[in-house]
Amino acid sequence: MISADFGSPQTTLFLLLGLAWAAVSVPRFIRWRTRTAMLKAIPTLGPSGLLSGYIGMYRFFTNARELLQEGYDKYPSGVYKIALLDNWVVIANGRTMIEDIKKASDTQLDMREAGADVLQVEYTLNKQLILDPYHVAIVRTPMTRNIATRFAEVRDETVAAFADLIPAQEDWVKIPAYTTSFQIVGRTANRFFVGLPLCRDPDWLDLNMHFAVNVFLSAQIINLFPGFLKPIAGRFLTRMPASWRKEEEYQTKDWPGKPVNIGSKDEQRDVPDLISRVLGIEVAAIHTTSTTFCGTLYELAAHPEVVEPLREEIESVVKVSGWTKEGISKMRKLDSFLKEALRFSGTNGLVNSRKVLQDFTFSNGTTVPAGVTIGVSAYMHHHDEALYKNADTFDAFRFYNMRSREGESIKHQAVSPDFDYITFGTGRNAWQVFNLRTPLLGRFFAVYEIKGLIAHILMSYDVKLEEEGVIPPYEWHGANMDPSSTGVILFRKRQEC
Question: How far apart are CA 229 and CA 167, in angstroms?
Fold first, then answer.
């Protein structure tokens, strides 16, 4: 018979190791069981098994619009979840759920972390943009204050960009809408960010345009892989290294007025860090604004009935206020047209994405565990008949008429998010892409920029689609919705009536 010597050093060691293992493992097990119970209580759309999760991810990537619409119809005022490869995305629907997200603190729901996951910034940009977002204060203060004073420069670049890219001719000319939108927005945004002559440098513009596209494309590729394979995918399957090398070349070039540093003396950073921040700002400034402008341009060409009312407003405003930020802000019909274009076809399937940092409970009692991402199905929300009368009909002056009501003259603007209009998300972080652009500069500058571009088109050109009233189909890449990358718009010099 073998007896245990409970007083021996070996036994004591084993007991201590066992207690240490239990101290670590039991809380983890309890946490796992609690997390599993929370997730199980949230309705699932699509398959959710270990292997079937791959099917669910594939379906979400290839048919996100149909899946999100199904979820919106089933749970119009609640939440549901969709399985990804190694995690879940929880979709919230309805005003109450959106308000819950808006009220949550950054310690509960974090937009930066969600943006970092979506764009895989660790591999496409630089993780330091999330850990140390010092560039935000730089963008927020001096750049935001100068929107009005430097709007004349943006206007000057608008005129020059259109003259170079779309010379006004008597006959109709086919223009590729998507690539031209990127080129025009690239020039006008860069006139504000880096000034002349760099904003017109073909190599610089080509780098910025392709870098912005490559960030989103690379992120989509990386997100097709489970977490443990993301570093490999990020290293070998993306197009980022070539863009980094090209950007580094510009650090050695000089041009009149080249900035020495974008921060204070105490914020000096090395070249790669500065590169990542400049390119990060460019990504936000160019990609989102370009696709929005392209979609708005399609809507303008599809609705010739709005042209004369918009032209009359623009002409009357410019006559009094000129081509200024103040003048652009007075163009209410143009603002309504842009907002309706954004509502109708300018939003992604998901917006308002937040990473759950602490277990978060919605007002209906549903608890979402930490580590999961929450989003709101914007496209479906904006096409909800309960929120918008004739929601599937494009009404260019829908919001203009709302602003004409007593006491609502400053409401319903394109820059103003609310619980029914969530193009820019909601709350203080609206349209703040992982802190690369501040809320103020983000949506305000982009809206003024796009309105200025559309106003210039209306004053200088006639536009139409190849097939009257038929907008080239939008392209869905997962939950991302982009205007057609192959569609064309016909331009000619404006013909006086």
Answer: 48
| Residue in the block written with tokens 């098994």 | 49
Instruction: CATH number of the domain at 100, please.
Output: 1.10.630.10
Name the band, by pLDDT with cuts 50, 70 and 90, for residue 1.
very low
User: Is residue 273 in a domain?
Assistant: yes
End-to-end CA distance of the chain, in Å? 110
Whether 134 contacts 263, CB under 8 Å: yes
Range of the domain at 331: 43-493
Contact status, residue 325 vs residue 151, Cβ threshold 8 Å: yes
The string of pLDDT tens digits covering residues 361-401 is 999 999 999 989 999 999 999 999 999 999 999 999 999 99
Rounded to 5 degrees, what angle do the CA atoms 303, 177, 381 make?
Answer: 60
Work out the average pLDDT over 268-279.
69
Within 10 angstroms of residue 98's Cβ, the number of other Cβ atoms is 24
Residue-wise pLDDT tens digits, 131-159: 777 776 766 666 667 888 889 999 999 99
Question: What pLDDT is recorded for position 260?
Answer: 44
Instruction: Show Cβ contacts of residue 103 under 8 Å, excluding neighbours closer than 6 positions.
Output: none
This prediction has a pTM of 0.84
Contact in structure between 450 and 439 (CB atoms under 8 Å): no
How far is the C-alpha of 326 from the C-alpha of 313, rounded, in Å? 14
The secondary structure of residue 134, as a DSSP letter, is T
Q: Are 379 and 93 in contact (CB under 8 A)?
A: no
Does residue 2 lie within any of the structural domains?
no
The whole-number pLDDT of residue 274 equals: 74
Instruction: Tell me which amino acid residue 448 is.
Output: Y
Task: State the amino acid at position 264 in one-letter form.
Answer: S
